Amino acid sequence: MGVEKSALEFQMLYGIRRDLQEQLSAEGYPVRVYVPYGTHWYPFFMRRLGERPANVLFFISNFSAGEEAWTQKNQP
Asked: What pLDDT, in 10s, does the model give residues 23-59?
């Protein structure tokens, strides 16, 4: 494209396409990973889920996988 890598920045939501985040960073592109927080995180989260219905399935599968891993790790 003829654009310096430092002339742009990729901004990605935490937990989404971590493989791509790592690839871009390894290639020398600036990557900013963000996490919504504060009083308006819930409307942001719901809007993102509504933008792409497949995000709901992605969220549920990752949430349940994370919960399962946490449960296994913390069993006596």
From this structure: 999 999 999 998 888 888 888 878 877 887 777 777 7
